[in-house]
Protein backbone atom coordinates (compact mmCIF):
# COMPACT_ATOMS: atom_id res chain seq x y z
CA UNK A 1 0.00 0.00 0.00
CA UNK A 2 1.40 3.42 -0.89
CA UNK A 3 1.03 4.71 2.66
CA UNK A 4 3.37 2.02 4.02
CA UNK A 5 6.98 2.95 3.35
CA UNK A 6 9.11 0.36 5.12
CA UNK A 7 10.77 -1.15 2.05
CA UNK A 8 9.73 -4.03 -0.19
CA UNK A 9 7.52 -5.73 2.36
CA UNK A 10 5.99 -2.38 3.27
CA UNK A 11 6.02 -3.24 6.94
CA UNK A 12 3.68 -6.22 6.73
CA UNK A 13 6.10 -9.03 7.54
CA UNK A 14 6.22 -10.24 3.95
CA UNK A 15 9.98 -10.20 3.52
CA UNK A 16 10.30 -13.95 2.94
CA UNK A 17 7.48 -14.01 0.37
CA UNK A 18 9.02 -10.98 -1.33
CA UNK A 19 12.46 -12.65 -1.39
CA UNK A 20 10.93 -15.75 -3.06
CA UNK A 21 9.11 -13.63 -5.64
CA UNK A 22 5.64 -14.58 -4.41
CA UNK A 23 4.77 -11.04 -3.33
CA UNK A 24 6.00 -8.16 -5.44
CA UNK A 25 6.18 -4.54 -4.36
CA UNK A 26 4.63 -2.51 -7.15
CA UNK A 27 4.00 0.66 -5.18
CA UNK A 28 6.10 2.76 -7.54
CA UNK A 29 4.67 1.28 -10.76
CA UNK A 30 3.23 4.25 -12.69
CA UNK A 31 0.58 2.33 -14.66
CA UNK A 32 -2.03 0.60 -12.53
CA UNK A 33 -3.61 -0.91 -15.66
CA UNK A 34 -0.47 -2.95 -16.29
CA UNK A 35 -0.52 -4.15 -12.68
CA UNK A 36 -4.14 -5.23 -12.94
CA UNK A 37 -3.46 -7.27 -16.07
CA UNK A 38 -0.39 -8.92 -14.51
CA UNK A 39 -1.93 -9.75 -11.13
CA UNK A 40 -3.74 -12.86 -9.92
CA UNK A 41 -5.65 -11.07 -7.17
CA UNK A 42 -6.38 -7.53 -6.01
CA UNK A 43 -5.95 -6.75 -2.33
CA UNK A 44 -7.42 -3.34 -1.66
CA UNK A 45 -8.98 -1.26 1.03
CA UNK A 46 -11.70 1.03 -0.34
CA UNK A 47 -10.14 2.05 -3.64
CA UNK A 48 -12.46 2.53 -6.61
CA UNK A 49 -9.96 0.39 -8.51
CA UNK A 50 -11.98 -2.63 -7.35
CA UNK A 51 -14.75 -1.69 -9.80
CA UNK A 52 -12.35 -1.80 -12.77
CA UNK A 53 -10.60 -4.93 -11.54
CA UNK A 54 -13.92 -6.74 -11.10
CA UNK A 55 -14.30 -6.73 -14.89
CA UNK A 56 -11.29 -9.03 -15.15
CA UNK A 57 -13.27 -11.59 -13.12
CA UNK A 58 -10.29 -12.30 -10.88
CA UNK A 59 -10.36 -12.60 -7.09
CA UNK A 60 -10.56 -9.46 -4.97
CA UNK A 61 -9.87 -9.32 -1.24
CA UNK A 62 -10.96 -6.30 0.78
CA UNK A 63 -8.68 -5.37 3.67
CA UNK A 64 -11.08 -3.46 5.91
CA UNK A 65 -9.19 -3.17 9.17
CA UNK A 66 -10.44 0.40 9.71
CA UNK A 67 -13.85 0.28 7.99
CA UNK A 68 -15.81 1.71 10.93
CA UNK A 69 -13.56 4.74 11.31
CA UNK A 70 -13.27 5.21 7.54
CA UNK A 71 -17.03 5.14 6.94
CA UNK A 72 -17.69 7.44 9.90
CA UNK A 73 -15.13 10.03 8.86
CA UNK A 74 -15.56 10.01 5.08
CA UNK A 75 -18.92 8.44 4.43
CA UNK A 76 -19.67 5.74 1.88
CA UNK A 77 -22.28 5.00 -0.76
CA UNK A 78 -22.65 1.44 0.50
CA UNK A 79 -21.18 -0.90 3.10
CA UNK A 80 -18.26 -2.57 1.33
CA UNK A 81 -18.04 -5.19 4.06
CA UNK A 82 -21.62 -6.30 3.34
CA UNK A 83 -21.51 -5.99 -0.48
CA UNK A 84 -17.89 -6.92 -1.12
CA UNK A 85 -16.51 -8.25 -4.42
CA UNK A 86 -14.75 -11.02 -2.51
CA UNK A 87 -13.68 -12.01 0.97
CA UNK A 88 -13.22 -9.29 3.59
CA UNK A 89 -10.30 -9.33 6.03
CA UNK A 90 -10.72 -7.17 9.14
CA UNK A 91 -7.12 -7.63 10.30
CA UNK A 92 -3.69 -8.59 8.99
CA UNK A 93 -4.19 -11.98 10.64
CA UNK A 94 -7.40 -12.58 8.67
CA UNK A 95 -5.71 -11.37 5.49
CA UNK A 96 -2.85 -13.82 5.99
CA UNK A 97 -5.33 -16.65 6.71
CA UNK A 98 -7.26 -16.00 3.49
CA UNK A 99 -4.10 -16.52 1.48
CA UNK A 100 -2.63 -19.34 3.56
CA UNK A 101 -5.89 -21.31 3.35
CA UNK A 102 -6.52 -20.59 -0.33
CA UNK A 103 -9.92 -19.09 0.50
CA UNK A 104 -9.12 -15.98 -1.50
CA UNK A 105 -9.93 -17.93 -4.67
CA UNK A 106 -12.66 -20.32 -3.53
CA UNK A 107 -16.25 -20.72 -4.77
CA UNK A 108 -17.50 -18.15 -2.26
CA UNK A 109 -15.05 -15.63 -3.69
CA UNK A 110 -16.42 -16.30 -7.20
CA UNK A 111 -20.02 -15.98 -5.97
CA UNK A 112 -19.32 -12.66 -4.23
CA UNK A 113 -17.49 -11.35 -7.30
CA UNK A 114 -20.37 -12.31 -9.62
CA UNK A 115 -22.87 -10.51 -7.40
CA UNK A 116 -20.68 -7.42 -7.26
CA UNK A 117 -20.25 -7.38 -11.04
CA UNK A 118 -23.99 -7.75 -11.59
CA UNK A 119 -24.68 -4.84 -9.25
CA UNK A 120 -21.92 -2.43 -10.23
CA UNK A 121 -20.50 -3.37 -13.63
CA UNK A 122 -23.53 -3.81 -15.89
CA UNK A 123 -22.44 -0.96 -18.17
CA UNK A 124 -18.87 -2.24 -18.49
CA UNK A 125 -19.52 -4.25 -21.61
CA UNK A 126 -17.07 -2.60 -24.02
CA UNK A 127 -19.74 -0.40 -25.60
CA UNK A 128 -20.10 2.39 -23.02
CA UNK A 129 -18.28 5.04 -25.08
CA UNK A 130 -20.41 4.19 -28.10
CA UNK A 131 -23.61 4.66 -26.05
CA UNK A 132 -22.38 8.00 -24.71
CA UNK A 133 -21.58 9.33 -28.19
CA UNK A 134 -24.81 8.05 -29.71
CA UNK A 135 -26.94 9.40 -26.85
CA UNK A 136 -25.30 12.74 -26.07
CA UNK A 137 -23.72 13.75 -29.36
CA UNK A 138 -25.99 12.17 -31.95
CA UNK A 139 -29.22 12.42 -29.97
CA UNK A 140 -30.14 8.79 -30.65
CA UNK A 141 -32.20 6.62 -28.34
CA UNK A 142 -29.89 3.84 -27.28
CA UNK A 143 -30.81 0.61 -25.55
CA UNK A 144 -29.01 0.31 -22.21
CA UNK A 145 -27.96 -2.95 -20.55
CA UNK A 146 -30.00 -1.97 -17.48
CA UNK A 147 -32.57 0.78 -16.85
CA UNK A 148 -31.02 4.19 -16.33
CA UNK A 149 -32.31 6.46 -13.58
CA UNK A 150 -32.70 10.10 -14.50
CA UNK A 151 -31.01 12.24 -11.88
CA UNK A 152 -32.65 15.66 -11.38
CA UNK A 153 -30.52 18.62 -12.40
CA UNK A 154 -29.04 20.74 -9.64
CA UNK A 155 -28.74 23.97 -11.60
CA UNK A 156 -30.38 24.77 -14.90
CA UNK A 157 -29.61 21.86 -17.17
CA UNK A 158 -27.91 18.58 -16.42
CA UNK A 159 -25.94 17.64 -19.55
CA UNK A 160 -25.51 14.04 -18.47
CA UNK A 161 -29.19 13.18 -18.15
CA UNK A 162 -30.94 15.92 -20.16
CA UNK A 163 -33.25 16.49 -17.22
CA UNK A 164 -34.15 20.04 -16.36
CA UNK A 165 -34.34 21.69 -12.98
CA UNK A 166 -37.82 22.86 -11.96
CA UNK A 167 -38.50 26.48 -12.91
Percent of residues in beta strands? 5-15%
Which class best fits the helix and strand makeup?
Answer: mainly alpha
Number of domains: 2
The average pLDDT is 81
Catalogue the unreliable spans: 157-167
Number of helices: 7
Our measurement of the CA-to-CA distance between the termini, rounded to an integer number of angstroms, reads: 48 Å
| Molecular shape | globular
Question: According to CATH, what is the class of the largest domain?
Answer: Alpha Beta
SSE string, helices as H and strands as E: HHEHEHEHHH
Q: What's the name of the CATH homologous superfamily of the largest domain? A: CDP-glycerol glycerophosphotransferase, C-terminal domain
Largest sheet properties: 3 strands, parallel
Textual characterization of the structure:
The protein has a 3-stranded parallel beta sheet with strand order 1-2-3. Helix 4 (67-74) links the parallel strand 2 and strand 3 (88-89). It has 2 domains: 31-120, CDP-glycerol glycerophosphotransferase, C-terminal domain (Rossmann fold), CATH 3.40.50.12580; 123-167, no CATH class. The protein is mainly alpha-helical and 167 residues long. It is globular and about 55 Å long. It has helices at 15-19, 32-38, 49-54, 67-74, 92-101, 107-120, 128-137, and strands spanning 42-44, 60-63, 88-89. It starts with 14 loop residues before the first helix and ends in a 30-residue tail after the last helix. 13% of the residues are buried.
Amino acid sequence: HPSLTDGPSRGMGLSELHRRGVVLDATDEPHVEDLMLASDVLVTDYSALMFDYANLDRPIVIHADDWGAYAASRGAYFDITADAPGHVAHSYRELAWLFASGSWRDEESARLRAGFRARFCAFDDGRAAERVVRTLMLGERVEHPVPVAVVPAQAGHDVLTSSRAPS
